[in-house]
Amino acid sequence: MTARYDVVIVGAGIAGLTAALYAARQGLNTLVVSSDLGGQLLLTNEIQNYPGFKSISGLDLIKRVEEQAKSYGAKIAFDTVTGVEERDGRFIVKTLMGGEIEAEALVLAFGKSPKELGVPGEEKLKGRGVSYCVICDAPLYRGRRVALVGWGYHNYENIMVLKKYASKIYWVFPGEKPLQDDSLLQEALKGGKVELVPRSQPAEVRGERKVEALVVRDKKTGEERVLEVDGVFVEIGYVTKTEFLKGFVELNDKGEIIVDQKCRTSRPGVFAAGDVTEMPYKQAVIAAGMGACAALSAYGYVMEKRGRRVAVVADWKHIETGEEEKEEKGTLFLKL
Ligand SMILES: Cc1cc2nc3c(=O)[nH]c(=O)nc-3n(C[C@H](O)[C@H](O)[C@H](O)COP(=O)(O)OP(=O)(O)OC[C@H]3O[C@@H](n4cnc5c(N)ncnc54)[C@H](O)[C@@H]3O)c2cc1C
Question: CB count, 10 Å around CB of 187?
């Protein structure tokens, strides 16, 4: 049987969870469908620019918002959305494991996903040694050999985490150096566990049921080298994976969802928030703010479909909805 909700939110990062908090607090029957809880914020141990907290870990922040959203009745289902369509004025969300879910309004808040290597063996061995999150999975590799593919300061931090667990770390990167700052590089190399593999490009992940090796190719000579490892960490950045939305809502040339100031997409009833949108400032507080905006717009949409008008109380003294709306009977005022 198809599950039915007033609003389905795709993604349980800070944008989706904030949308859930706002939607559920307005009394909408709200479901969040997400591949995981927390999204990118789980990758950082310390956030110093989220208002209200001088310092907080990503996990801590996410747990608080999750709890707050659930306290208003929002539900969370862990699944991956593979498609969306509109049928008879309602939205159908297709998922990998749980079939179809029906919604009156949609909030798309599925952020950015890790960039993949795109080499043979990677797809098959995802979750079987191929990981896209050092902070999440490093403890699984205690005493084992791993390769880290990536460069830059973020990967310096990843190396420092991996050194706590792995017995050997191959640091694979395309240039001459993985870091500009030599003192940080020396710090990363301390202890002798880390071997630099410069000018290299991954060519294949090998293994039958789990990762056994990473094959890298020298960018200058084309020579291949087989690194025998139990794990391959890929930390080469993030991309929006919105292919399944093509033709459904308007995207920009980077594949990001185009929204207006009310977080409305090009399709009525579909809203979007956070890093998955064209908003250039990819920051937690902005994603959260957009989540709130998308949920309030979704609420307005659902109510109007049900024949109720919604007025936003813009400040505490004046109701800035225009004279006609003020006089109209049955206008709902948003509880903010
Ligand atoms: C290492 C790192 C450090 C950072 N540090 C800071 C910082 O200090 N301060 C700051 O403000 N910002 C920071 N950011 C940026 C911040 O994390 C993001 O801007 C913010 O998390 C975006 O939130 P989001 O909810 O839009 O998307 P995401 O966090 O990307 O969440 C998206 C969610 O959608 C899910 N999802 C994806 N695809 C699907 C699908 N098809 N079906 C179902 N679910 C799906 C994902 O599993 C995830 O749960 C950092 C980012 C990184 C990577």
Answer: 14
Residue owning the nearest CA to atom 26 of ligand 1: 274
Give the model confidence (pLDDT) of 121-161 as tens digits: 999 999 899 999 898 889 999 999 999 999 999 999 999 99
82 is written with which tokens? 């593979």
Going from N- to C-terminal start, the domains of the chain cover 3-113+238-305, 130-234
Domains 3-113+238-305 and 130-234 share a fold: yes
Predicted pLDDT at 315: 45
Q: How far apart are CA 105 and CA 294, in angstroms?
A: 10
β-pair partners for 100: 94
What is the mean pLDDT of the segment spanning 192-201?
97
- Three-state SS for 191? coil
Question: Are 72 and 24 contacting, i.e. CB atoms less than 8 angstroms apart?
Answer: yes
Beta partners for 206? Answer: 213
As a CATH number, domain 130-234 is: 3.50.50.60
Q: Probe ligand 1: pick from 35, 41, 116, 153, max atoms within 8 Å of CB? A: 41
Q: CATH for 3-113+238-305, among 3.90.79.10, 1.10.3210.10, 3.10.310.40, 3.50.50.60?
A: 3.50.50.60
| The pLDDT of residue 318 | 40
Band (pLDDT 50/70/90 cuts) for residue 308 is confident
Strands 145-149, 168-172: pairing is parallel
Residue nearest to atom 52 of ligand 1 (CA): 40
Distance CA 106, CA 147 (A): 39
Distance from residue 192's CA to the centre of ligand 1 (Å): 33
Task: Name residue 214's beta-bridge partners.
Answer: 205, 227
